[in-house]
Amino acid sequence: MSVAFRRESDDEHLEPKFELPIPPGPNLVTLRGLALIRARVDEIEAHLADAVDEEEIKKLRRELRYWSTRQSTAQVMDPPQADVVAFGSTVTFVLNGQNRRITIVGHDEADPTAGLIAFSAPLARALNGAEAGETVDFGGRADAIEVLSIE
After folding, report:
1. 39: how many CB neighbours lie within 10 A of its CB?
2. Does the keyword field hold Ion transport (predicted)?
């Protein structure tokens, strides 16, 4: 029989399972973000203890490696000053004629639909260091954002 028609196992043709990608740069977190990471680790460990299916166990172990790494590399940031936009700030601003409000957080805590933006997002980077009443450039437009207030 030709080698071309021989197959050692079905596993040869499965898609490889890669580690979950860790965002580049520092793992900055708020206290809330660290609590969310810890809760996720605890949740995965509990599921892993009850898992019996080998594929499920592999998946959970991969997730646990990711979240354990995120927990061990977390750098809790001090609360920001109220007068300058920084990590942890909640900012109210005007963009394209609409009032918006976001909080700048770490990657794992980010949820744009809830107004939680990662510190590395272009919008957060544009607002970083701004003060209330200031306008900042964004999206290639000068003075595109007017900062109304910072909490």
Report:
1. 11
2. no
